[in-house]
Input
Amino acid sequence: MATNPISSSSDVGNRIDSIGLDMQSLLQIILTQLTYQDPLKPVDNFEFVSQLAQFTSLEQTRQITDKIDDLLSVQSATQTLGLLGRNVDVQTDTALLSGIVKSLSFKDSQPQLTIETESGEFLTNANISQIVAVRQTSGS
Output
């Protein structure tokens, strides 16, 4: 069974961050708009409330994105835990190796596996994306 790596949902957050605006900047824009508006033609209440609603929506979207990223990290860890003791095929830079997942650790929030190959050697710091197949153990 091949496994696919879990991807991040932070694309929306990255696009917002690439603009360089945060909630404080957006509120500063509104304040500047209110400061320099024509007293004879004030901002329409509906337009003002609409802008505030958009800013609130933006902030909520960023919070949801952060929560989804956290959830994906937990899911990745859980998925990796399920590989402990399982026979796997791992694609390295030089060969396709078979072995049993012996342990896992996390480096920069990414799971790293230690795999004992059929020849008795240990492959350390294997990434979950290197696993091309998961097989039933011979005892199960």
Notes: The domain at 87-135 is CATH 2.30.30 (SH3 type barrels.). The radius of gyration is 25 Å. The chain has a mean pLDDT of 80. The first strand starts at residue 87 and ends at 91.
